[in-house]
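Board notes (copied after class):
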Amino acid sequence: MSAEMDRLVAEFDKFQAKLKQAEAQFAKVGDMQEELTALEAEVTSPDRAVTVVAGPSGSIKDLRLTPDALRQQPDQLATSILATLHKAVAESARKQAGIVDEHVGTAFGLNVSDQVLEAQAAGLGTTVEELESNLPEEQPQQAAPVRDDEDFANNDLLRDDRRTPQAPPSAPPSASAGDQFLKNLFNDEEDHR
């Protein structure tokens, strides 16, 4: 009886470890939401007369004009404001994509940063390489997603996808109801049909 109890305890510990992994992954989503809410991209025009602060989803948080900006002709100032605004919103989108990639990109096999760069390059009628060469130096380049086989998002929560499916061993006639429950918990749904 002691060997069966030890095995049940080991199976339960394995289940608890998977639940802790799930909780950690969900905590990352909350952290991501907080980072996205606080996101800001500040861009200043080349003549330093206009500064725009963009937030998540292209929202404009601030627009600052220097006294030099107010001495410009209206058309010149409007052009400078719009150009700076577009750059700030684009930078905000790239930062937002970087945050998403950092928190969930690997888990879901995404590279949102590359998708954003491709869309921006297409919208501007340029190449991704040309766009990247004009990015501010502090713009970090996203690393390729790394496969983390211990991350529950890459596997079913209750089973290990790296192993080849095997038929479950038949339960001895004296198996307890708790034993059967734990065995069923870790098997594929197809095994139960």
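Comment from the instructor: Residues 2-38 form the longest helix (37 residues). Helices lie at 2-38, 67-70, 74-108, 112-124, 128-133, 177-185.
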